[in-house]
Design brief:
Number of helices of chain A: 9
Helix content of chain A: 25-40%
Number of strands of chain B: 0
Strand content of chain A: 15-25%
Low-confidence stretches of chain A: none
Shape of chain A: globular
Low-confidence stretches of chain B: none
Strand content of chain B: under 5%
Oligomer: heterodimer
Helix content of chain B: over 70%
Number of strands of chain A: 10
Order of helices and strands of chain A: EEEHEEHEHHHEHEHEEHH
Radius of gyration of chain B: 21 Å
Largest sheet of chain A: 6 strands, mixed
Largest interface: A-B, 24 and 17 residues
Number of domains of chain B: 1
Chain lengths: 252, 246
C-alpha cells in the first residue's frame, strides 16, 4: 500500500499540489485522473521520487520516501516497475534484452534463468516470439507497451506505476493494455497506480480513483461510485462527451 | 550565474559518474562498444586529416624556407614539431570534439527526452554511471592511441608528398624528423590528449544528460557540447603548455 499524506509541492512559488492525501491500495488498480495541468503528473512523479516534495509524507508500506537516503531510494526502486507514456524502451537493446536488463542488473540469476524469466514475462503480455529479437523501433506502439509492461514486471515488483498507458494507442489495443494491467495487478498482488485521462480506462479498470483538481484531491471512489457523484468539476471532466453523458444516464 | 550553475551541476554529475559501477559485468559489456564507437569509428577522419595536414605542412614549409641560410632539414623538423606539439594533440582533439562530442551529447540527450534515463533511474540504476562512465573511460583509452596514430600518419603524409613533388629529398626529410628530438614532447602531447579526452566526453555527456524538451533541444545540447568542450580544450591547452613547457 502507498499512502500519501498532506503533500505540498510548488515550483518557483507556484503551488501545484496542495495538501494532497490519498491511499493507493495493494492488489487494486488505483487511478489518478484530472484535467491537463491539474497536477496529476506532478503527484505521480512525487510519489516515485522524481520530484522532491515540500511537505508531507509518502509511505511505501510504512517506509517514508522523503526520509530515505539516496541508496535507500535506489533499493526501494528495485521494488518498483514503471510503464512510461512513450514506453521508454532502450533503443540499443532488442526486445528480449530490454526485459532481461533489470534481471542482469539486480538479480543473481544465471544466463539461462534470466532468459527463462524474460520469456515468461513476454509470454505473459502475449508478445509473439518472432518479435523477441527485434529492436524497439521495429515493433508497433501496442507491442512496445507490452514489452514495457514485461520489463516492468520482470523483477516481480511490489509497486507498478503507469503514466498514460494508452496514449497513442487505438481503442482496441488500449483495452488490451488496460486488461493486461488489471490482470497483472491481481495476479501478482501489486499496488498499481495509473495516471490517465482516458475515460474508457477509468470505467473499465478504475478500482480506486483519485480526482485531482487544481492540485487538490477533491474526490476518491471507484468506477461504480463515479456515476453517482455530485462533484461538478468531476462530472464535467469524466462525462464531457455526449456518449459518456448517456452512459451516466443509463447507469443512474 | 549560468556558468556557476552549470559548473556546479557538472561537478555533481561527475560525482555520480566517477564511482564504482553497480555491476562490472555490465560495464565490461558497454566498454568495448564505446571503444569501437568513439575510438575506432574516429579513425577514418584521423587518417584523412593527419595525412593531408602533414602533406600540406611539408609543401608550405619547403616553399617558405628557400633561404640558403636555413638548414636542409628544416622542413622535417618543422613538420615533426608541429605535429607533436600542437596538431595531433590539440587540433585533432578539437576536430574530435565535433565528431565525438556531438555523438555523445545527442545520444544521451535523446535518451533523456524519450524517458529512457528516467526508466534507468526508476529501476534503481545509477544512470549517470551506467551511461557516461564507459564513454569517458573508452575515450580516454583511445585518445592517446589516436594521437600517436595521427603523428605517424602526418609524418608519412609529409614524406610522401615531399618525394612525389620532388620538393625534398628522403635524406633531408628523415634527418629533419630526427634532429633535436625531445622525447618529453611526446609525453607532453599524450598527457594533453588524456585531459582533452576527459573534457570532451564528460562535458558532452553533461549537456546530453541535462537536455530537456524535444528534438530541437537535443540539437542545442549537441551544439553547446561541441562549443564548450572546444573552448575548454583551448583554455587547458594554454594552461598545460605554460605549466609543462613555459
Amino acid at each position: 500500500m502507498i499512502e500519501v499524506k498532506n503533500v505540498d509541492k510548488s515550483f518557483e512559488g507556484n503551488e501545484v499540489l496542495k495538501n494532497v492525501s490519498a491511499i493507493f491500495e495493494t492488489g487494486k488498480t488505483n487511478m489518478i485522473i484530472g484535467q491537463s495541468g491539474s497536477g496529476k503528473t506532478v503527484l505521480m512523479k512525487s510519489i516515485i521520487g522524481l520530484h522532491t516534495i515540500d511537505k508531507g509524507r509518502i509511505e511505501y508500506d510504512g517506509r517514508n520516501l522523503p526520509d530515505m537516503k539516496m541508496h535507500e531510494v535506489r533499493i526501494l526502486r528495485r521494488e518498483v516497475g514503471m510503464l512510461f507514456q512513450g514506453s521508454a524502451l532502450f533503443d540499443s537493446m532488442s526486445v528480449l534484452e530490454n526485459v532481461m536488463y533489470p534481471l542482469e542488473m539486480f538479480s543473481d540469476f544465471g544466463k539461462e534463468e534470466m532468459t527463462e524469466r524474460a520469456i515468461f514475462c513476454l509470454d505473459r503480455v502475449n508478445l509473439e516470439e518472432k518479435a523477441f529479437h527485434l529492436g524497439p523501433s521495429e515493433i508497433s506502439g501496442g507491442m512496445q507497451k507490452r514489452v514495457a509492461i514485461a520489463r516492468a514486471i520482470a523483477l516481480q515488483p511490489k509497486y507498478l506505476f503507469c503514466d498514460e498507458p494508452n496514449s497513442g494507442l487505438d481503442p482496441k489495443t488500449s483495452l488490451v493494455i488496460d486488461q493486461l494491467i488489471y490482470e497483472i495487478t491481481h495476479e501478482f498482488d501489486i499496488t498499481t497506480i495509473i495516471n490517465s485521462h482516458d475515460m474508457n480506462s477509468v470505467m473499465e479498470i478504475g478500482e480506486n480513483i483519485i480526482f485531482i483538481e487544481n492540485g487538490e484531491n477533491t474526490w476518491q471512489g471507484n468506477n461504480k461510485d463515479i456515476f453517482h457523484v455530485h462533484n461538478e468539476a468531476l462530472n464535467s471532466f469524466v462525462f464531457a462527451s455526449e456518449l459518456f453523458k448517456q452512459v451516466k444516464k443509463a447507469n443512474q | 550565474m549560468s556558468i556557476t550553475r552549470e559548473t556546479g551541476e557538472y561537478i555533481l554529475l561527475m560525482k555520480r559518474v566517477l564511482v564504482q559501477p553497480d555491476r562490472w559485468k555490465m560495464f565490461f559489456r558497454q566498454f568495448p562498444k564505446e571503444l569501437e564507437k568513439l575510438g575506432l569509428q574516429s579513425l577514418p577522419i584521423v587518417i584523412i586529416i593527419s595525412v593531408f595536414i602533414g602533406a600540406i605542412m611539408t609543401i608550405q614549409t619547403t616553399l617558405n624556407s628557400s633561404n640558403p641560410l636555413l638548414p636542409t632539414y628544416t622542413t622535417g623538423l618543422v613538420v615533426r614539431d608541429t605535429l607533436l606539439l600542437e596538431f595531433s594533440s590539440t587540433i585533432m582533439c578539437l576536430i574530435l570534439a565535433g565528431k565525438v562530442g556531438s555523438n555523445i551529447a545527442s545520444e544521451i540527450g535523446t535518451m533523456r527526452i524519450t524517458e529512457q534515463i528516467d526508466a534507468f533511474e526508476i529501476m534503481g540504476v545509477n544512470s549517470a554511471n551506467y551511461l557516461i562512465f564507459p564513454k569517458i573511460t573508452a575515450f580516454v583509452v583511445m585518445m592517446p592511441l589516436l594521437v600517436v596514430f595521427s603523428m605517424a600518419l602526418g609524418l608519412i603524409g609529409g614524406y610522401c608528398v615531399g618525394i612525389i613533388t620532388n620538393l625534398i629529398t628522403t635524406a633531408n626529410y628523415l634527418a629533419g624528423i630526427q634532429y633535436a628530438f625531445v622525447p618529453y614532447y611526446v609525453f607532453y602531447s599524450l598527457l594533453k590528449s588524456l585531459i582533452f579526452a576527459f573534457l570532451i566526453s564528460s562535458v558532452s555527456a553533461y549537456y546530453g544528460y541535462y537536455a530537456n524538451g524535444g528534438a530541437l533541444d537535443v540539437g542545442k545540447a549537441s551544439t553547446n557540447a561541441v562549443v564548450n568542450s572546444s573552448i575548454l580544450i583551448l583554455f587547458f591547452n594554454l594552461l598545460i603548455t605554460n605549466l609543462m613547457l613555459g
